[in-house]
Amino acid sequence: MATSMERLRVLRGLIRELRHVHKKGPVKETIAYNYLMEQYRKHQVTDQRVCRAHQELQRNAETYLCLLKSTRLQQALHDEYYGRPERTTEETAKMLGFDLPQNPPDK
Amino acid sequence: MATGVFSVHAGRFLGRIFAPMQTIERQMAAARKRFYKNVSISQSNGMYEINLDRRKLKTPMSRLFSVPNEPIAIAVATEWEAQHKEIKMSHMHMTQLCNTAIDNPSKKTPQQIVDDILSFLETDTICYREESPVELAELEEREWEPLLDWVRQRYDIQLQSSTSIHGPTIPKATKSTLKKHLLHFNHWSLVGVTSLVETLKSVVLSLALMDKHLTVEKAVALARLETEFQIMRWGNVEWAHDMELTDLRARAAASALFIHYNSERVTTMEKAPSWSA
């Protein structure tokens, strides 16, 4: 079973990702944040009673964190490599770790 | 004169041939700008709808976008909120899954969807083994075999791996057991299962993720085991390998959540009032 430290780590991660989503305005005003906090609080109450729901929440939170994070990284990689006009020969060579023959590194 | 008439006609004729292609290109190239400021959710008849400012979100087939549960609606709203300058539909997996479920563009019945899902079993990643290089064969044995054991026990089925190009032979009983299991899912969940199986290229891995036997990260790692093996040998290429990795993780995570929230009736048990207080 996930420890409370582990749960907090995932929750913090989720809030961090939500901040990326809502660049303007405080994250506390967003629907996702409020829903998330409500769920976490609700399950805190049932802590003593049912473990299954608890574990399920943790797993879903991890999965959602994975979704938000992967989508953001995917977007970043896309912008870096595909989201701009064609590279010059020099840039392309650099990307692969090469220098063009006319400007060797030592000259 | 005659040639002039001919060329006009030819122009029209060619225009008729090429015009549709041009419009398709234009649609592909121009991403739509974000045209809304606020995203909100409203509830009507137990369904959740997404509002972009005052406008209601619709599906590609112009149906009203309405989803049966709150967590999915919130995930969709968050996706629309995450579009900062342009709307990039290719990064909005939850919205796409809902669109597919609402529009059902392929017009398939649950029976057909389940058959399609199970056709992946014949070429299931987990059952398709390599013999060389030896290191890869060992890695596959070490990582995949426990999962195969798990699925055999969990669903009480026969399933073997194979190194032949034809793949393993799937016993009829195995297919019918899994078919029975999958037919318990509703249409929305099955849309999620289809997407998950297509992402992981494996029915076994999908079942393990749906049953929460694996995390998304682990399931994706096992799905691209050979790729990871080659990366260990030859190095990682960020603009290909990492792009694929983040794409697969996002798709698998979206599908897993979509299946979970659409198949389970979420009930919360409040803590009973304590009588001693």
TrEMBL record, chain A:
Membrane-spanning segments: none
Cellular compartments per GO CC: mitochondrion
Protein origin, superkingdom: Eukaryota
Cited function: Plays a role in the assembly/stability of the mitochondrial membrane ATP synthase (F(1)F(0) ATP synthase or Complex V).
Recorded family membership: Belongs to the FMC1 family.
Identification of the protein by name: Protein FMC1 homolog
Gene source species: Branchiostoma floridae (Florida lancelet)
Taxonomic lineage from the root: Eukaryota, Metazoa, Chordata, Cephalochordata, Leptocardii
Gene responsible for this protein: LOC118428280
Automatic annotation (TrEMBL), chain B:
Keyword Transit peptide tagged: yes
Coiled coil: none
Compartments where located: Mitochondrion
GO cellular component: mitochondrion
Superkingdom of the source species: Eukaryota
KW rRNA-binding (keyword) present: no
GO terms, biological process: mitochondrial proton-transporting ATP synthase complex assembly
UniProt entry keywords in alphabetical sequence: Chaperone, Mitochondrion, Transit peptide
Family to which this protein belongs: Belongs to the ATP12 family.
Protein name: ATP synthase mitochondrial F1 complex assembly factor 2-like
Species this protein is from: Branchiostoma floridae
